[in-house]
Amino acid sequence: LVWMAAVIASLFIASLATVSARMGATVMKPVEALMGAASHWSAGELDTRVPRFRDPDLAGLTETMNAMAAELADRMKTMAQQQGELSAILDGMNEAVIATDADLMIRMVNKKARELLGPRGRRGDAETTLSGFLERPLLQACGSSPLDALARRCIDNLAPQDEEISLYGDTTSTMLVYAAPLAMEDGRIGAILVLNDITRIKRLERVRRDFVANVSHELRTPITLIKGFIETLEDGAIRNPQEAVRFMGIIRRHTDRMASIIEDLLTLARMENPERGRLALHSCQVAEIIGKAVESLDDRPASKAVSILVDCPQELKIVANEGLLEQALVNLLDNAVKYGPEGGSVRVTATPDASEGFICLSVSDEGQGIPAKDLSRLFERFYRVDRARSRELGGTGLGLAIVRHIAMAHGGTATVQSIEGYGSTFCITLPSVPLSIHSDEPSDETETTSS
Q1: Is residue 203 included in any domain, yes or no?
Q2: Are 401 and 268 in contact (CB under 8 A)?
Q3: In 3D, which of 385, 384, 13, 422 has the Cα closest to residue 218?
Q4: What whole-number distance in Å separates Cα of residue 144 and Cα of residue 113?
């Protein structure tokens, strides 16, 4: 009996162990599956799903956790999409945008900001990376003390600030900066900076002011002289025929000068008027245009014994506005004769570049040359190297500006090369066959005038 009791007890214990092992495996398998799925989810693998179990209690838990993972995945996808859209919007903006935290560490910067504020030797480089800005102090990353001070003032005062700031590098840029407080996730206040590049606007304002001042000065001078001589005539000089004739000649000369200035201003206005539409172009013989320009000078070359030498292939043609191109050449030839020495020569050359599809029309003189410091501004309105000499010779200061506008209207350029003491060469480079140029220029019926 004792032996049988021992055997029965052993069998019962073995059965219990087997049942316990099977129950443990049944419970641990779902737990391990849940732990494995949770591990994948924590690693960002939200597509992982827990397999369905037969146990109804575990099945409910499985469905709940899978639904939670799916919802979390959808939210992460939506957030990523929204972040991408925000980045695209910011990078597509023409304004530079920078976000900093309370310690002025950069948290966000868009593409325009990276281009404007990147390393000074690479300003304008679109490849300036985010790593050069993110988590760096604003002052260190951008190198602008006024910008750093503006952001600090915005944070300290908890109020928007704006200021014009100059950024120095390869070139100097003027920025209109707007700073506003920015609430951060840690409860502190940072700053959002928006920088608008107004360099071009400032330059245009300066050009406008200079233009108005120059026009006023150029017109006031002859008007003052005319008024003075008229008053002199009224005071009795008109009774002296010799003096009256001399004074009338002076009045006529200054009246012609005012008429020339106004005519040139109107020409520029017509050329810059966008409502003029497409420039009328047709095929022209270059040699014929040069010949007409030389004829338009009348006896001016002969009065100074200046010879004009033309080097142009007779068969050379160009698609252009003949009237405007002739006017550009007249302006250049007139200047070459005016500022060249008596008994000298002026050379007009037409050089085709078949490989590039351009034609260069150059006018070279034997004058005193132009200082290097003046070359970059020579095509500006009313800019003169020697103001006194220019007025003495009857120049308006607009002739080269007109030449530049005519070249640009044809899709070309106007350039100058000069060495003091060795004369100057002005070159109009035009495409031989312009492509769909919309211009603000007058039509081919434009009257040719000399500046």
Answers
A1: no
A2: yes
A3: 384
A4: 13
CATH number at residue 107: 3.30.450.20
Higher pLDDT, 386 or 184: 184
126 phi and psi angles, rounded to 5 deg: -70, -15
pLDDT average, residue stretch 140-148: 87
Q: How far apart are CA 264 and CA 270, in angstroms?
A: 10
348-399 confidence digits (pLDDT tens): 998 887 667 888 999 998 888 888 888 888 888 777 766 555 555 555 677 8
Radius of gyration of the chain (CA): 40
**In terms of domains, do 232 and 100 share one?**
no
Judgement on whether residues 438 and 370 belong to the same structural domain of the protein: yes
Q: Looking at 54, 87, 120, which one is the last position of a domain?
A: 87
Domain for residue 2, yes or no?
no
Write the Ramachandran bin of 143: left for phi over 0, alpha for psi from -120 to 50, otherwise beta: left
Quote the tokens at residue 441: 């220029």
The pTM for the full model equals 0.53
CA distances from 315 to 79, 352, 434 (A): 68, 11, 19
Residue 128 is part of which domain span?
Answer: 93-197
Q: What angle do CA 96, 101, 103 make, to 5 degrees?
A: 115
Please say if the pLDDT value at position 6 is more than 60. Answer: no
The answer on 228 and 296 residing in a single domain is no
**Are the CB atoms for 162 and 151 separated by under 8 Å?**
no
- The string over 164-201, giving b where at least 16 C-beta atoms fall within 10 Å of a residue's C-beta and e elsewhere, is ebebebeeebbbbbbbebbeeeeeeebbbbbbbbeeee
Q: Same structural domain for residues 282 and 378?
A: yes
**Phi, psi dihedral angles at 436 (to 5 degrees):** 35, 60
**Whole-angstrom distance, CA of residue 413 vs CA of residue 359:** 11
CA distances from 403 to 206, 269, 321, 340 (A): 22, 14, 13, 19
Whether residue 353 sits in one domain with residue 291: yes
Count of C-beta atoms within a 10 Å radius of residue 99? 17
Query: Residue 274: its pLDDT value, please?
Result: 56
- Whose CA is closest to 337, among 364, 361, 311? 364
Where residue 417 sits, what CATH number does that domain have?
3.30.565.10
